[in-house]
Amino acid sequence: MMKKITEDVEVTEEVSTSEIYVSPDETPITHCILHNSVKILVDTLNDEENEMLVPPLLNERNATGKSPLELCAILGRTDIMRELLSKGADVNLANCEGYTPAHYASAWGQVAVLKILTEFGADLTITNIRSESPKDIAQRYGKVECIDFIDWAFAKESLLARIKAIQDVLIEPEKKPSREEKNLIINSCKEKLAWVENTPTATTQEFISQQVALDTALSAVLSKVTKNLNKSTV
């Protein structure tokens, strides 16, 4: 079981889960984050006796108001962050000022953290009470690597969203694409999806170029389909 005790015993990787001593200002999880005690955290999360206790702690803030993911973002605790997210920690949980873990990662230049957050579905468009997105925060503090990664993530998401929008043409009967047009759309989208999957090192510009190429290849078909839709709604 997780215990809340005094702060006079330092946590090390060799201490067993039952011997964790936690400062009154910290939760058992934030304590492990501060001490980078990955093994203890994993043992605690996977202990069957803690099954009912763990979920609320995944997002519980410490005495300074920081959530576990926010602390991981600030300190660059990538291994712990991945464990918490895999257990269901809220990737987009914002504090009272609207800062999400992605905002903190951007402020502290923790690009590896940003990558994990994005992998688990972080919304990089969320803004704080000052209308600042994670990219805005990265720009404010001059965190170039974070800016570049966010641009890359947006370019990738834009291509995938465009593919999805084009595929949706096939499930809207009002648009009435011909068999040849359907095949062209299907094959073009499959080609781009395969490119995304098989090109993990693609650059921001390559994602942009692939989207332009997709739109160019299907421009005539999509223009015709749009006209058909307009006719059917008149």
TrEMBL record:
Q: Does the keyword Cell division apply?
A: no
One Pfam family, short name: Ank_2
Cited SMART domains: ANK
InterPro entries from the entry? Ank_Repeat/CDKN_Inhibitor, Ankyrin_rpt, Ankyrin_rpt-contain_sf, HSP70_C_sf
Establish whether keyword Repeat is in the entry: yes
Residues spanning the membrane: none
ANK repeat placement: 64-96, 97-129
Which UniProt keywords are given for this protein, alphabetically ordered? ANK repeat, Repeat
Give the protein's recorded name: Ankyrin repeat domain-containing protein 45-like
Species name? Octopus sinensis
Lineage here is: Eukaryota, Metazoa, Spiralia, Lophotrochozoa, Mollusca
